[in-house]
Amino acid sequence: MKGVIVIALKEMVVKNFGESIWNDVLLKAGITLEPMLMITSNVDEQVVLRVISSLCEILEITLEQAAEAYGDYWVNVYSQRIYGTFYRTAKTSKDFLLKLDSVHIAMTKDIDDANPPRFEYEWTDGKTLIMKYKSKRGLIDIAIGLIKGVGKYYKENLKINKLGNDKVEIVFP
Ligand code: HEM
């Protein structure tokens, strides 16, 4: 997985909970020497998952709560700095989410070893969208946290239901 994901995670934890919590999380995850990461570095997925589960244990929160905190930070703070035009060129969360598959393709096409998640879209009625999440990483809960962050950015009250490990239903207002 690309370093950008972990860089944003660290920034969220340090800003919201403090540097010493981040150090505790690394220790609990068995990382004694924190590597210097760049946006395009490759990070072992198992290590990232260990870091996330250590964070949940230390803060005594569920994976859903951690995903929500991360999704809010990624969408509303971190990615605004480097990928802000994607949000500004979409008027609603629906416009933005429908671009998400092509955004992932475009943003990773020049990065070696990138393997972005893919999204497929299916409408069940005029305002109900099923987004199929295709990735062997199985991070649907993180995807849902990110979608919640998108709703917050556009100030829209989205109803989000997890339909399984590869599907989420979104009802737009
Ligand atoms: C402008 C906004 C966004 C940009 C530029 C972006 C870009 C990226 C990049 C570069 C990666 C790393 C890919 C890799 O490791 O090969 C990634 C991973 C990921 N993105 Fe996004 N992303 C954005 C928003 C979102 C949103 C709103 C969602 C919600 C569904 C999402 C879902 C994910 C997930 C779940 C991963 C983890 C990797 C996986 O599941 O396979 N992203 N994204």
Mean pLDDT: 96
Structural class by helix and strand composition: alpha+beta
Distance between the termini: 34 Å
Strand order of the largest sheet: 1-2-4-3
| % residues in beta strands | 15-25%
CATH superfamily caption of the largest domain: H-NOX domain
Describe this structure in words.
With 173 residues, the protein is an alpha+beta fold. The protein has two domains: 3-61; 90-171, H-NOX domain, CATH 3.90.1520.10. It has helices at residues 3-17, 19-28, 45-59, 63-88, 93-108, 140-153, and strands at 118-125, 128-134, 159-164, 167-171. Strands 1-2-4-3 form a four-stranded antiparallel beta sheet, with helices on one face. A hairpin with a 2-residue loop joins strand 3 (159-164) and strand 4. Helix 1 crosses helix 2 (19-28), helix 1 packs across helix 4 and helix 4 crosses helix 6. The chain binds protoporphyrin IX containing FE. Protoporphyrin IX containing FE (HEM) is lined by residues 1-2, 4-5, 75, 79, 83, 86, 100, 103-104, 107-108, 114-117, 135, 137, 139, 142-143, 146-147, 150. Protoporphyrin IX containing FE (HEM) binds at residues 1-2, 4-5, 75, 79, 83, 86, 100, 103-104, 107-108, 114-117, 135, 137, 139, 142-143, 146-147, 150.
Quick overview:
The protein is α+β, with helices and mostly antiparallel strands and 173 residues long. The protein has helices at residues 3-17, 19-28, 45-59, 63-88, 93-108, 140-153; strands spanning 118-125, 128-134, 159-164, 167-171.
Topology:
Layout: H1 3-17, H2 19-28, H3 45-59, H4 63-88, H5 93-108, E1 118-125, E2 128-134, H6 140-153, E3 159-164, E4 167-171
Antiparallel strand pairs: 1-2, 2-4, 3-4
Helix pairs in contact: 1-2, 1-4, 2-3, 4-6
